[in-house]
What does this fold into?
Amino acid sequence: MQRILIPVLAVATVSLGARTATVGSTPAETVRKVYISVTDSKGVPAVDLTAADVTVKENGKPYPVASLEPAKAPMHIAIVVDDGGTGAFQSAVAELLQKTFGKAQFRISMLTPQATTVIDFTEETDGLKGAIGRLGLRGRQRASGDHLLTGVSEAAKALQQRNAERPIIVVMTLGSGQATEIDPKAVLSTLRTSGASLNVLYFSGADIGEVMIDGPKQSGGRIEEANAGAPIAPAAGKLAEILLKQYVLTYKLPDGVKMSDKVAVETSRKGVTLTAPTRIPDK
It folds into this structure.
């Protein structure tokens, strides 16, 4: 597998994703897919879960789990960098790309303060190396909560346009605070419609806003926190490992059952934590 050769750079130090899709397997049923992650007490991915270990409910009604398998579909990862121009997440982006390279296509945007696309979905090495280089120290560029929510909405829409099978958004933020003009609920709705999992990396004490808290819970993503002043790259590496070890859970709705956007996935396995979406596309 080709690897990204990340150049040595002077870097300033300042879950899981889940997806649903629907396909008609026969005229009498609808197949639903949900991407989940499972970790043990040390936060290490658990790789031996079986269909018998999990249950699923949609709109409060249980359905049999048809299958639970390691996720193999390529990921589409949209990274949104909110670093205030400090370059604080350059090493974290490099770490995420390095660990998932060959398993995903990547889109990178940064707040300047407006959301600006650095590179669109690609797995091309030179383009990604160039994009990482642009994430270094750039001078102070203070973004607002509205700028960040715009970046998340644009990432979700870009993933939906590509009809990505495993759409993932990773936000790395210093904390832009609460939005004042954009309705967080509208952004959460856009996120739900896209089927993407929202994952957030931030430093402790940052004001990350409503969407960065509720979005991961609803979409089956993760929130990774690093102590202020500590390296953030290990948190990005941990997230990458969990994404690489996702499961895809499949269940079926009988003919005539209307799809709902409310889902609950649980496990009977002791000593593990299951991360799954609670809101999914309903069409």
User: Anything to note?
Assistant: The two ends are 37 Å apart (CA to CA).
